[in-house]
Amino acid sequence: MGEWPWVSWSLTVLVEKWRPFTILQPYPMPGQLRVDVYLPRKTSYLMDKNIYENTTSPGGGPLCGEKTHRSDVIIPPPGFAPSTDTASNTLGENVDASATTSSANPLSQEPGWCESCSKLFKSQRGLRVHQRSKHPELYHSQNQPLPRSKARWSDEEMVIFAREEIANRKIRFINQHLHKVFPHRTLESIKGLRGKNVRYARIMADLEAEMTSQPEAATSLCTETSENLASSNVLPQTRGWAENLVENIDTAHLANLGPLSQFEPGKPSSSTKEAINTEYNDWISKWLPSGAAHRERRANPPSTKLNARATRRLQYSRIQNLYKLNRSACAQEVLSGAWKVQSGELNLKEVQPFWEKMFRKESAKDRRKPKPTGEVLWGLMEPLTIAEVGSTLKSTTPSAPGPDKLTLDGVKRIPIAELVSHYNLWLYAGYQPEGLREGITTLIPKIKGTRDPAKLRPITVSSFICRIFHRCLAQRMETSLPLGERQKAFRKVDGICHNIWSLRSLIHNSKDNLKELNITFLDVRKAFDSISHKSLGIAAARLGLPPPLITYISNLYPNCSTKLKVNGKISKPIEVRRGVRQGDPLSPLLFNAVMDWALSELDPRVGVQIGEQRINHLAFADDIILVSSTKIGMVSSINTLSRHLAKSGLEISAGKEGKSASMAIVVDGKKKMWTVDPLPRFKVNSQKIPALSITQQYKYLGINIDAQGARNDAARILTEGLAELSRAPLKPQQRLYLLRVHLLPKLQHGLVLSSCAKRALTYLDKSVRSAIRRWLTLPKDTPTAFYHAKACDGGLGITRLEHTIPILKRNRMMKLTLSEDPVIMELVKLTYFTNLLHKYSNVKLLNSWPVTDKDSLARAEASMLHTSVDGRGLSNCSDVPRQSDWVTNGASLLSGRDFIGAIKVRGNLLPTKVSAARGRQREITCDCCRRPESLGHILQTCPRTWGPRISRHDSLLKRVRNQACLKNWTPIIEPSIPTNIGLRRPDLVLAKGNIAFLVDATVVADNANMQLQHEAKVEKYNNSDIKEWIKVHCPGVDEVRVTSLTANWRGCLYGGSASFLTEDLGLPKAELSLLSAKINEKGYYLWCAHYRGTARLWNRPLRS
Questions:
Q1: Residue 480 and residue 474: Cα distance in Å, rounded?
Q2: Domain co-membership, 823 together with 718
Q3: Would the keyword Acyltransferase turn up in this protein's UniProt record (predicted)?
Q4: What number of other Cβ atoms are within 10 A of residue 267's Cβ?
């Protein structure tokens, strides 16, 4: 039998049936243990236990005593495992397996044996609960429903069956043909359905009426190909749109083009094309920057092996330069961990063959003539106006220039009237100059450090002239194109939220109502780079784009070329015969038109019912989800979509190397339970689509989706991100900036759209505070509100996820309730959605403050901070919000050491005797003056820091004086002014024109009333003798004002002083942040000087 290391067994087993058998010790002696076990009935056991007092179990816990007793889990002797077919009566002899088989009744009280972890349970129910929790894959694979021989026909299956019958009515033996298409149905079942089923007869009648009511294939101009459009003789409504465009074209802005009457609108001939090309080259030549020729970047020297110190210096230099140039790129580099990897650079010669083959491959021949979705949208041909182009220019953000090296600022220097005339000319002619068809393609790695050309994303940029024009057209088309409601990409809606919530609701509705659900995630391989140019024009015409605009789009891609740019090297021009430019504003809408066409071919009667709406797909650009309530319905949808995408040159990726996946929730009606089928069910292009098991997840739009709904891996992302921020060569303020602006918002996307527990959010907040405490070397008793309060309230401005995420969840869900999407309107009525909305709408309390939105959360955090011992001195911080920018902007204004010290001064977090004695009996007196040594005492009154305090005062005045001089103010420094009450020496006098300001600076205690301090300064210098003296020494001044520069030692400026600096002196508001930072920096120097100094007043001899 073998022995356990902590107990020896000696037993003889005669197996017949299971029965509970208990070994009891009424009064256990030391070293004895009560054990409950299940043993076979009519079995004789001889058991000897030699248990010693100091013996421990295999897990390391104590063995002896009542606390080790567990009656729910049975641990059998080693080697004791009942078999499924035979059992052993003497550990070697076989007996009838029926004697050991437990009952199939779900409520059976017979014991259960877990084969995975060798545990026995009192009942089969306990075993199932254990397996579902600890071994979910085993549980779901063992509980798959058996196929039913006489299963009912679902509505979805009958629809597909009816369409197959209608399409093959002329076949002689129709029943046999349908049996081949539906092999899982018997021939008798097919005959019965066709002959007697009333629901099927009704579906057949509806489908026949639907097909007879559809008109023949459209033959209008909007369904013709580009070749047919070019050969058409008459364009409807030509006179109206053409005349409007001509009226808005100023020929004075066109270089030697001639009269517009020579051009036929919407039908560019070869002479028209030549004239437009010549005119554009002459016009743009005067606006191109000089020296636009490309200079290749100098190749990096061959890498040599560096020691650790040199490597660290190189990494620091590279990250700091990247942080200055592009903080977003720096954040991506740091958080991905690529900052410490010296990966080899891409080589143009390695990647060029792959992308040349990709671009030069011919587009698929698409000769379809789809039915138009509505009327022709002639409003898109309205002339562009100066206001429209000007608004687009203003809202466009700067980016990389195109091949002509013309930047956005360069385009803005061109008169808008000239741009409008040229744009309307190209719209009128239906032709774009060939000079605008060239592009620069930059290859961006999808995976950091990869050298595989297939894992690079091509981003093509054309001239800014072209991008502005196409953006104007795209803004018009966004509000006009009748795209399907399920396509959410590149539209002004919260498309990601719509699709994720739709998917979550489908999954939970299926499990709650025990209905089968099939979900297939489809990914289109190289979608933007493979789409047919022919399909773009046809799909656009299907949506109602007017023929002249279709002509423009059809002429946009022929003779189009691009140059690959890799590490500063540029290839020769490559002809592009398929695909759209990822970087052109018009490309997303053209791509959406093709995808909408393919998705519209899906059977509207196939899908999942949500209320009164049926949904069969979700789409976000090329990320497509198909849903159905039956297996055969999903097969039909996959085949339909794959067939239509192939005609546009697109292919669905499947198999082991593809990104597609499927998930099937199947239902056992008798057991009233659902399971996940782990076996592949579907194929596309003869390749199996991998199936997700109960433990596997699929990442869709950044959210992990599984059978439980939407999951997030925020804990992993945060842990890895904090570790990279800690290791990367960054300054403390840079770490805080990247955490606040990049890492935490990255977490919010997953946390808001997925399910997360409150304790998980609390754990994330604790992890963030722990990292900040390490970076800034803050004490452990730092107030929690100091981390999370807004910077303008005195905190660090770090988001508190525990309270922010529920608010964001509620806001996003409330927006869903206002959606006009029919499916979303039905979704918000589901119990699952309403329960969650009610949960997140409950009012939470933080420090007795009700938290209902971000403003109330900010007020609660500020209240917690200002009522704490260390934070009460920051109550005046919100009077001047801009003074706290230095805390959050991540600028290199201070060194890392000084920034940490300034933050500690701001939060009263530097160690002193008073702070160290909190809760302890310790000496708190200053060793210099025998007063309580608090931070306020060190910075304001201690004689040892008298000199540094003068330096702090002078540095503030010097900064204000220098900045005022830049604004043409004339300064007088510390003038000695005689008055009737004695000599007065104000810090500074500033004069300009007919006005002068007398300024006196003071840094007060953090608990002082700064308004009273300001009024005291004004009262001291508001003297007629002083004003007369200033008028005499400042010629031309007839008005003198007295003010003060008042702040406390935490860097909080008085509101009146801030108004004087920005409004009266005209200094930029950024100066307020610099002054606040300087006060805190000098305060840190004061603290350092105090602890370095040795001056003492208490041991000096008294003066006689």
A1: 10
A2: yes
A3: no
A4: 20
